[in-house]
Amino acid sequence: MESTLTLSLRSKTYTNPQSIPCKEISEFLNNHPEKNFFQSIEILDFFEHVQDHLPVCILVWEQTKIVGLLVGLKIENNGVRYYFDNGPLIIRNRSNVCQKILFALEKLSGDSVSIQFRWQLYPVKREDVFESFAYTKQERYNILIDLQNDDIFNEFCASKRRQLRQSYENGLRISPVGSLDELLVFYSILEDLYLKKVQKPLPSFNFFSTFYQLMQKQNQGIILVAHYRGRIVGGIVCPFSDNETIHEWYIAGQDKDYYRENVYPSVYLTYAAIKYGKDSGFTQFDFMGAGIPAVPYGVRDFKLRFGGELKKTFRYLKQT
Prior knowledge:
It contains eleven helices and 14 strands. It is α+β, with helices and mostly antiparallel strands. The chain has two domains: 4-134, 3-Layer(aba) Sandwich (Aminopeptidase); 143-311, Gcn5-related N-acetyltransferase (GNAT) (Aminopeptidase), CATH 3.40.630. Strands 1, 2, 3, 4, 5, 6, 7, 8, 9, 10, 11, 12, 13 and 14 form a 14-stranded mixed beta sheet that branches. α6 packs across α10. It is globular and about 65 Å long.
């Protein structure tokens, strides 16, 4: 039951990005210190164009001003699931605004099997409220690289610097993806990785082609691909949070096929994305996850060899 503190607020849920009040949201985000790509108008527009990805936006108003925002995704695949990254965003961390958002989400998600909040960039806000709504807290790691550090490339471990040098000397090159044909080759490499190793659902090709045709062409992100001997041998997908953070969303490279030739696509792609972020004036590089504390994880070990700071983050999960 809602308290009198939340009854003084009003919430509205949007599932059609065309109907959201863009001007008011932009004003809210421009004044919020934790604004990011995953809580933005741009990602709502992106999700709207991706098959099987249904955008969700919950706004909380106090009189005529937005005081809380939550942007996320509804996926219908073996049951309805909701995912929210780096949100909600709340003015002055107000408990009643967080409560209002979660009340609205409860009304929306009555048909769901799970709801998941994932934080990579910022500390969890209002943990007490999430726990009062029966969410379970899960610890995670992330790694962030400070791109304002002029010495970041010297902080790469010696083996990674050697692999970068060898890859370049042996002809590996990186460029922005230039066509859907190139993107399809990268997607097949990514699909193979997810099938054999990651063993988690991978979005359809439409997700990546929409990112290329919409987000990259609007300078909201970039897909880099690795070329070797006339072939695409890997790629990386990086959305942008304004001019502050460049995120590593998806990455795959055929290192196992070419390491005997001293060519390491995944290593070079990671370096290229970090360098792109630094050269473009971003302040940090976000690896978007590094596993569970106390559980061995080879991907975390790989990422830490590029320097950066290991940070503890959290998820909140609710099975419904």
